[in-house]
Amino acid sequence: WLDGVGASGLDGHDLRELGLKNGNLIVDDRRNGKRWSFDKINASLMRPQLGGIIFRLESDDHERPWQLSAAMRPLGDGVRAVGIEARKISVRDILMAMRLNEGAIDVDLPLSASIRAEVLDDGTPQLIQGQLVADAGTILDRHGAKTSIAIDRADFRFNWDVRRRSLIMPFQVHSGGNQFTLQATLAAPDEPNTAWQLTVVRGDPVIDPVILAAGASPDQEGFALNRTIVRARIDLVRKRVDLDQGDFSRIDTRPTHNIGVAVTGSLDYSGAEPHLAFGVAATRMPLSVMKRLWPVFTAPGVRTWVMEHMSGGIVERVVIAGNAPSASFKANGPPTPDDGLSVDIETSGTTLQPVATLPAIRDADLTVHVTGRTDRVDLGRGTVEAAAGRKLSITGGDQFRRRQDAAGPAPGSQYAACNGFERRLSDQGRRQGQRHTGDHRGAPAEG
Known about the structure:
Blueprint: H1 2-8, E1 17-29, E2 34-46, E3 53-59, E4 66-76, E5 79-90, H2 91-97, E6 105-108, E7 110-120, E8 125-134, E9 137-141, E10 148-151, E11 153-161, E12 166-175, E13 178-187, E14 196-202, E15 210-212, E16 223-225, E17 227-235, E18 240-249, E19 260-268, E20 275-282, E21 285-286, H3 287-293, H4 300-309, E22 310-311, E23 314-325, E24 341-352, E25 361-371, E26 374-385, E27 391-405, E28 408-409, E29 417-419, H5 421-431
Antiparallel strand pairs: 1-2, 2-3, 3-4, 4-5, 5-7, 6-9, 7-8, 8-11, 9-10, 11-12, 12-13, 13-14, 13-15, 14-17, 15-16, 17-18, 18-19, 19-20, 20-23, 21-23, 22-24, 23-24, 24-25, 25-26, 26-27, 27-28, 27-29
């Protein structure tokens, strides 16, 4: 068809261009009753004098103009050159056109692209080179109101060569002052029905691969990782992804900031419900650093509780393991089985504010243990600053916990409960002429 158009024109004779000016496009989605309207649309299909074909689609909307163009021309021996240029195309609109806009993730990013390729007449790519640039926007988890990632800019460059049988993609992402500079390599399998090999390493010899900017609170110091390596296998036949190695570390002159985090796991999407298994282990590090490294999408309820109630000190040990349907790890997903999640964190010199109505426990040694149905914080020792400048020493036996049944947490269990600490603080208050009464309940310990 392409060769025929190039030889005789769009109408079989000498017509070289078809077009639409200032048109309107209305899309009705009968799946959900939603409607989208695209105004001031220009479209054209052209046949250049030297052969080939050019398609252009754009919008002159002043609020959000965009442009998409594609061209193809024969090079000989059954090889065709393809070029694609895009400017400020909405990723949300692309997902809608592909009928992928009803998923859990909402991507609102303007995307620009420049792609050059050489393909055979059966569509097999021989060479692909290009660049994708996303400007400021957001990535939102529709199932978790707090799980939103703001993107300032993302730049991906890629190169595929059929002789090398690999895709090389250096990229850099800026998000809220954070910066990620890495290089991904995807190697095609040598034998049919085997897995693709994915490797992600440091993308620049000078720039640290992961740079986390300082946050608003005093314990959110800036931090960077200078060693990163990820190795994974993507099996499209078995519908499985295996993360064999995920090592993230920093070599630092400060002993407390000389850290490492190791991650392994797998995602099996061959069944009706994808299944996720993972393990995370980390070396000794400041609690402030662990907070910065804890991804927003990993155990979000536990993460929120730690962020709001714990600060300062050193994390002596971190071990996290999960093995359950992937939906169980979503913010508003079904309850995680009791053996589907295990989080163990040991800290020293930490400040804990378990209940908003009571003083904070300082210089505390804590052990946090989380399963699919239970959250528990054991207090080894700590100090409470009571009234009139007096201090109350806590030594062992205090526990803050929450348990939920299969239907979710019971209303009363949403609050952190303390055995021993509240009674002792009340005794101390009575001796000072201050009486503590009532049911002391604090912020929800969400899990």
